[in-house]
Amino acid sequence: MSENNANNLAIKVVNLEKSVKTQEGELTILKGIDLEVKQGDSVAIVGPSGSGKSSLLGLLAALDSPTKGEVYLDGQGLSDLNEEQKAAIRKQKVSFIFQSFMLVDTLTALENVMLPAELAGIPNARSKALSMLEKVGLSHRLNHLPKQLSGGEQQRVAIARAFISKPKVLFADEPTGNLDQENGDKIEQMLFELNKQSQTTLVVVTHDLALAEQCRRQLKMEDGHLSEITPAAERIA
């Protein structure tokens, strides 16, 4: 743990594997992955559909458990933690933008954005949620339920919710996938503003190569293996 903190690592992954059971037998979807991500870095993970990108993101964010190996999040090893302890780490340090939005159906847009701030005890949750929804262009949809919003609007609510707590690490699974060009550009700008201004570590799974190229590092997932696209020697220290 001290080694991770000494190196200022937000994420460290050691020999990570994930297998699932199928009708044909056991399928290994992540194979011996090693990764280090410094605090404040921005990392894009690209690769074909079904290559394991979203599965890896879930493991990094303590949403799932590996078959083998270890994930360290802000210096804390996750394998020995119970679900309550993992939930506490997510609440304190992590935000996640889900590809499927994961909004609470019975809460309005405003209430969905307020929720993580209230759970974390962040003061002025309502005013901060109002500000975030204004930034994503939804100040006129505050009191609408998710079912009353389009897919793109739900995505923007999910993004506002992820931003409100200014997390140490933000995981984003296809954050612009349901957005038109104008709103996609706006969200990309917000992602990198948070990364730079708050030193939030950004890990993005995307098929959008333009978004990936804005990240400091680009990684490729293929057949369960993770490789660096941008050589470490060419990155700015």
Automatic annotation (TrEMBL):
Output one GO MF annotation.
transmembrane transporter activity
Q: Does the keyword Hydrolase apply?
A: no
All copies of the ABC transporter domain together span: 11-236
Gene3D superfamilies, per this entry?
P-loop containing nucleotide triphosphate hydrolases (3.40.50.300)
Matching SUPFAM superfamilies? P-loop containing nucleoside triphosphate hydrolases (SSF52540)
One Pfam family in the UniProt entry: ABC_tran
Key words of the record? ATP-binding, Nucleotide-binding, Transport
Ligase among the record's keywords? no
Q: Cellular component GO terms, alphabetically?
A: transmembrane transporter complex
Q: Which family does it belong to?
A: Belongs to the ABC transporter superfamily. Macrolide exporter (TC 3.A.1.122) family.
Name of this chain's protein? ATP-binding cassette domain-containing protein
